[in-house]
Amino acid sequence: MMKDIIRPVLVLTLICLVVTALLAFVNQETMPVIQKAEEAAAAAARTEVLPQAKQFERIENVDLPEGVTEVYKGSGHSGYVILMQTKGYGGTIRMICGIRPDGTMQGIKTLSHSETNGVGTKAVDNQSGYREKFSGTTAETFQQVDTISGATISSTAYKKAVGLAFEAYRIVKEAET
Fold first, then answer.
1. Rounded to an integer, what distance in angstroms lies between the CA atom of residue 42 and that of residue 110?
2. Tell me: the pLDDT tens digits for 71-127?
3. pTM for the full predicted model
4. 82 lies in some domain
5. Is 13 domain-assigned?
6. Tell me, what CATH number does 56's domain have?
């Protein structure tokens, strides 16, 4: 009786160990490819929101506001690229924006989100042109962009992230002087 139970348990345990080892191997082999693709996508996003920059240097050792994950300085005094995240209705919204040296918004893009399709996506996927409304705004004027009716939580979160970007820009500029 005991033999009848132990044998299947051992076989299943062995199968689990082999499958786990194979998954770990595949993960290890594909990780460099995945990282390279992610780096290429990040570089393309930086160029998209601040096209006049040819290269980007990551700024470190600066106390950034909570929600700002990375800041890059564009080459040739072209401006800054700021990555930020905020909580929307459906979860975390990750965004990237470019700010010109004079403090005006150059471009903005949503990197990822889980907002409600057709409602919250009006703000984050730019279905309503919401993203373009921030182009040319400054830390003093971006609040004048209205939220989207029916997508108030998502568009408010979007505006909050824009505010974080302008705050990070201010901090980085002050640290440079």
1. 12
2. 999 998 899 999 999 888 877 888 899 999 999 999 898 887 766 676 666 666 665
3. 0.77
4. yes
5. no
6. 3.90.1010
